[in-house]
Fold:
Amino acid sequence: MKRDRDEVEEGNEERNKMEIVWQTPAHPAQKQDYIFHNGKRHVRPYYFEFVSHVNKRWEGKTIVDLFAQEFRGRSRDYYVSAVKCGRIQVDGENIPVSYIVKRCQKISHFLHRHEPPVMAWDVEVLQNEPDVLTICKPASVPVHPCGQYRKNTVLGILQAEYGLAPLYPIHRLDRLVSGLLIVAKNPAKADIFRQHIEAGLVQKQYVAKVVGVFPDAEQVVDANIDYNAREGRSTAEVGISNGDTTLKGKAACTKFTRISTNGIYSIVLCEPVTGRTHQIRVHLQCTGHPIANDILYLSDDVVSRSTLGTTADRAASLSGGSPETSCESHKEEYKYCSEDFSIDPMCTHCPNLAPNGYDGHEEGLWLHCVRYTGPEWVYECPYPDWASLT
Structure:
């Protein structure tokens, strides 16, 4: 017991020495939070409090076992040190490494947060109406906070650079997809848009750059989509359920029309009737004309993520720790400057600006949202440069 008390007292002394401002989700992004380097938008590393509550699966574990088993992005030794110095607390109090957690307790993890960089393209405002904002979302930027991304998001950038907040996105675009994003400025307007979407009154149009000469006639793909969250990849299921086989995926339908072709690539108009994860991407694969830079769906023979490691699509789903290191990833070639941020001696990412495992050669998909149409409203976004084959 004395040893445990000594550990807690040492942690309190160490915590009192640190002149650190711990951020929470309530702290808005600021212009000065961003560093632009080699065509990428980085976020200046900052101290952040992650909060979670003990669930049934965690109950009865020691605090160190809990973190080592549930958040494997950091080593067990790191979690031992974090508990001893007060960076992991329970109900706002320092605890010893042998502490056993109880149901519903609040666990705080204070850490030096490094967000993955995104491409340094602007988040362009297309229309700024009293109740609605439309923007052209750049590829590589997630819409809202998720996983390792908080400030390097569309909502974070709009707040930092335009002072626009709070905002309520009424639909989503995958992080690697670009184009039209409609955002409501108040909950009432957001509810109206969502009612239109849920009632099937909204039509969506995308353009994609695909491999080969796409057929001239309209193509309709009606194939169930089965999304594997672990692998971050969808598969299409074609057929009819019977007594021997049952389709696991959700019903999905997409219409495709060729806009142009140069004999090597084609620009295709994509009109999803439903909205499943990776629907357009996997349905284009079904036609034999996948998106030309879509590594996940260019081939059926994609190496499992459990073997390959992290790919671009998975980065947004990772949270609390470092992503797995891809065997083909490249280290971010950024040289630390003392004016940019302070090195934290406990941080597992310092002195690098980007988090460990970040693949610096990531690019956006050739998939772009161009139009949303609803009852008595239409919003559009310009076509991207890659949609011209001349």
Q: What stands out?
A: The chain has eight helices and 19 strands.
